[in-house]
Amino acid sequence: HNLQPAFQVDGVTLPSIARICTLLDGIPLAVELAAARIRVLSPVQIAEQLEHSTRFLASGVRTVVSRQKTLQASIDWSHKLLNEPEQTLFRRLAVFAGEFVIEDAQAVCADNVAGEPYEEPETREPSPALETEAIIELLANLVDKSLVRATPAGETIFRLLNPIQRFAWKKLSASGEKDLLRDRHLDYYLELMERVKPLLRGAEQTTWLERVELELDNLRAALEWSVQRGAAETGLRLACELGEFWWRRGYSSEGSDWFNRLLVNYPAEDNTRARALAWDGLLSMEKGDYQQAESSCKASLELSRMLGYQEGIAGALCLLGQIAYNSGDNAGAHRYFTDGLALYRQVGDEWNIALYSLLMANVQIKAGDSQAAARSSTESLALFRNHGNLWGIAWALESIGKLAISQGDYERALASLSESVKLNAQIGDKLGLSFSMEAQAITLGECGQCADAARLWGFTEAFRQSVHSSLPPIHQVDYDPYIKALRSALGRQAFEMAWNEGRSLTLEQAAALAVQLPPGEPASRATDQVAETGQALEQYGLTPRELEVLRLVARGLTDAQMAEELVISPRTVSKHLQSIYGKLQVSSRSAATRVALQNDVV
C-alpha cells in the first residue's frame, strides 16, 4: 500500500499474487522485488513477466547492496562463492525437473559408478571429476548455502527453487553438458522404473507408488527428452514401465497421450511395440475411448502372435475381454478371458491370473453362475494375499461384495466392501475407490439407507470426472435400476439434494460414509442401534458421524485408532470431539464417555 495506495487484494488479484509467490518459491527478496513493481504493473502483468525472466526485478534503490539489487545478481553472487566441484554439481542438478533424492543425484550427476574410480577419457577432454562418493558432501554444501532446499522425510527430498533452477539451467546449457546430462537422466529413470515396476505389485506397493509420484515431474521430463532426442524406443520402454502407475493412480489420459506421441515415431515390430499398444488400449478404455482401445488391443494381439510373444498374446486377449465385458458382450468376454487365462497359467504368471480371474468373476456373476464366480474370486484373493498386494486384495473384496449383492446377502456385502474402500483409500487407488464406493452405494440403498446411498452416487460421479475416469457402459446399465429405485424411495427433491451433497463431499468424507458400518455387523442391528442411540441423545443434536465417534470414545479408542476405524484423519477426529464436547456440555473424554454410557452408547 505504500507503493500503490489504491491496490486491493481481492478475488481478481489474489490468483495472480499466488502465482507470483509460486514462481518465486516464496523467496523473501524475490517477493519484495516483485512487490516493488506494483507501482507500474498489475499482478497479472508481473506474473507474465516472471514466466519469462526474473531480470525485470532489478531494484532502483541506490542504498541496496549491489548483489541484492536483482534476484539474478543475488543468485549469481552466491554461485561465484562456490568452488569448482560445487559449481559443477549445481549446474547438473538443473536437469531434475522436480524433486529428487540422493540416489537420483548420484546416478545422474556423478561421472563414475559407485565404488569405481573415475578415469579421464583418452581424448583428454576436460574432466568434471565428480565421483559418486563426493555427491553427498557437495550436495550438503549447496544446501548450507541455500542454493538447494532439503526437506527431511523418510528419505530426504531435495529440489532447486524455481528461480535458482532457471539460473542453473542457463549454466548447464552454457557448459556444453546439457545433452549428456539429459541422456543420463533419461537412461536413469528408465532403469529406475524397470526396478520399481515389480515392486508396484508387492507388499510395499504403496511406498513405491508414492516414490513414482514424487518422481513424476522428472519422469515427464525424461519422456519429453526422448521425443526431442528421437529416442523413441527408450521413451516407449519407459512409458510401458509407467503404464501401471498411470492406470492405478488415475493418470489414464496423460498416459494415453504419451503412447500416442511415442508410437507414431516407433514403427518397429517387436515386443516393445506390442506392450505399448496393449497399455494404450487399457488406458484408452479407462478414459472411455472404446474404439481406440479395441483398435490398439487388436493390433497388439496380431503383432504378439506374429512374434510368438506369449505374454503379449495373453494380455491382449484379456484386455479385449475387458472391453467386451464393459461394452455388454458377456459371451465374448467369457471367450477372451478363458483363452487369455489359459495362456497366463501356461507361463505361470500368478499376478495376471489373479487379476483376470476377478474380471472373469464379473462375467460369471452376470451369467448367473455364482459358484464359478465364487471360485474365481476366492482364487484371486488367495493369490493377491500370497503376494501381499493390497490393491489386488481390495479389488478381490469388491468382487466378493458384488457377488454377495447378487445373492441378496447384504451383510456380507457391507463387510467386504467396507474393507475394500478402506484399502483403496489407504493405497490411493482412485479407480478402485470409484468401483468399491459405487458397489457400497448399491448395498446401502438395499439396506434402506437411501440418503447415504444417493450421497455416495453423487460423490462417485464427481470423483470420476475429477480423475478423468469414464464409467464403463455396462456398469451404467447395471447401476440405473438401483439409482431409479433410490429416486423413487426418496422423492425427486430429496434425492437430488442428497446427490448434490455427495458431489461436494471430500474424498475423506466419502470414504468415511462408505465404511460407516463396522465390517461383519448385521445391517439390521446397526440400523437399529443408530436409531436407538439417536433417540437417546436426540436432545444434544449430535450428527450421525458424531454418534459414531462418541461410540468409539466410549469403547476407549484413541484418536489415531478412531481415525483408522472411520478412515478419516486424526485432525478430523479432533474436530468431531470438540463439537461433541460442546453439544454435551462436557470438557473431557471421561465426561463424554460417562454421558455415552448413561445413554447406552456402546
Indicate the topology.
Blueprint: H1 14-23, H2 28-36, H3 43-52, H4 71-80, H5 84-92, H6 102-109, H7 132-144, E1 149-151, E2 157-159, H8 162-175, H9 178-196, H10 205-214, H11 216-229, H12 232-248, H13 252-264, H14 271-286, H15 290-307, H16 310-326, H17 330-347, H18 350-366, H19 370-387, H20 390-406, H21 410-427, H22 430-446, H23 450-466, H24 473-490, H25 492-503, H26 507-514, H27 523-536, H28 544-554, H29 559-566, H30 570-584, H31 589-598
Description:
Residues 59-69, 113-127 and 518-535 have low confidence and may be disordered. The protein is globular, with a radius of gyration of 29 Å. The chain has 602 residues and is mainly α. The protein has a two-stranded antiparallel sheet. The protein has helices spanning 14-23, 28-36, 43-52, 71-80, 84-92, 102-109, 132-144, 162-175, 178-196, 205-214, 216-229, 232-248, 252-264, 271-286, 290-307, 310-326, 330-347, 350-366, 370-387, 390-406, 410-427, 430-446, 450-466, 473-490, 492-503, 507-514, 523-536, 544-554, 559-566, 570-584, 589-598; strands at 149-151, 157-159.
